[in-house]
């Protein structure tokens, strides 16, 4: 792990394990082909930057919040890495009416 990135907290190992599980059932030549192409393909996808939303997804998102709120939320997620699942559950439980959680 890169010592300059302490906030990764084992995520590369988790991702590598998930990738290994996906590749485990492939024959060796297919596995080798995917592993050889993977770094450049990931780099290509990262270079694309932002992806466009479908018109339906954009309409739904704009019905939930203003464009400014959506952009602010995306910036926050990019800066902080977003919520952990347990934090999301906790937040949802706090928003439930009393007596409904649990």
Short description:
This protein is mostly helical. It has helices at residues 11-23, 28-48, 55-64, 67-80, 85-95.
Residues in β-strands, percent: under 5%
Cα gyration radius (Å): 19 Å
What would the average pLDDT be, to the nearest integer? 78
How is the biggest beta sheet arranged? none
H/E element sequence: HHHHH
So how many helices? Answer: 5
Multimer state: single chain
Q: Helix amount, in percent?
A: 55-70%
Unreliable sequence segments: none
What is the secondary structure topology, with strand pairs?
Elements lengths: L10 H13 L4 H21 L6 H10 L2 H14 L4 H11 L7
What can you tell me about this protein's structure?
There is one protein chain. The chain has 102 residues and is an all-alpha fold. The model has no long low-confidence stretch (mean pLDDT 78). The longest helix is centred in the middle third of the chain and has 21 residues, at 28-48. It has helices at residues 11-23, 28-48, 55-64, 67-80, 85-95. The protein is extended and about 55 Å long.
Any descriptors?
102 residues, mainly alpha, 68% helix, 5 helices, single chain
